[in-house]
Amino acid sequence: MVQLMKRIVIKIIYMKSQRMFLKILMMMVFFGCKAQTIYSLETEPENRTADSYYVKDTNNIHDQIVGVWRWESGNSSFEITLQEFEQNPLYSGSIIYWDDIFGKYKFIEDGSIMAEVTTIANSIQDQPKIYVGYKSANTFHIQITDVISEKYKVGEFILNSNGTATMTLQDPIGSSGVRTPNDPPTNNLGFQLPTNITLTKIN
Length: 203
Description:
- This protein is an alpha+beta fold.
- It has 1 helix and 11 strands.
- The model is unreliable at 8-15 and 27-33 (pLDDT under 50).
């Protein structure tokens, strides 16, 4: 009888401890999910003070730039397609997330296709050929990699009031603080894509 009572008591204690463990686990999951802070795109970097956060397009700013943009001059054209990808990690395993914009392009010169990217990478780890990021009202950072020379340039994509946008590109700033062409493998080619154009949104 004594042994039976001991077993019953042990069983009760075990069951209580299981319930307590489950409660603690649920609380950890709940507060773990709540721990991520959401900031809008417009939040200044110095004000993103949380360790884990998500920079989210809460005001739908990306809607004005996502889509298809096209520049034409005679038989030459440059068309870019921009797409938003929500809650992308800053890097693999990161606890910082962004609503990112990546893209693809087609460059035609004198009627011939000179360069074309046919798919859009869906994460920064996949090395997108076009990356666009919010800078200020109507102005975005842009980085484009030329698949011909394997070099990239950076610049601004400025939205105008008439459904057009001005894109200007230049060499990135190196560690010395001076703008220098980035050196790809050994093809010795210069950047082949347009660097100062006005595009019209067509879709």
